[in-house]
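Hey team,

Sharing the Endoribonuclease YbeY run so nobody has to redo it. Sequence (162 residues) first:
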Amino acid sequence: MYVELVDETGQVPSEIIEQTKEVLAFAAKKLDLKESTEMSVTFVDNARSHELNLQYRETDRPTDVISLEYKPDESEFFFDEDMELPEELLEEMDPFIGELFISIDKAAEQAADYGHSIEREYGWLAVHGFLHINGYDHYTPEEESEMFALQEEILTAYGLTR
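Structure output:
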């Protein structure tokens, strides 16, 4: 999987950037995503996170991670509006699945609050957002149980334990 990483803050250590790429590639293998899959991750500060959270979620505060899932639109590729294509074909034509915005301020706060390493927190946020992009959610107790168990399984197997 290809992950484009952007550090808008200029403060994220190169080790965290590499770890983020690696843990997302690891998670992609766990979900059996194609190697051609692409996504982006942008590290932002709380001010930018607040702005994005307001824009996309209509929530007036900063947040730790924002996940924007991308679904290819048939109209981008074909002129015949009546033509329906299998989702697999659309995914092959446009392998971009979404983007994450991770707040470095929230990552630092939460690592301290939860008493684990900053590496673990960045990994947690990246995998959490990645799972959202891939259809997982936590609106119900059942969804939360499934998503958080998978998230913990990925992080533990990768080596980011508490």
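The longest strand covers residues 96-103.

Ping me if you want the raw files.
A.
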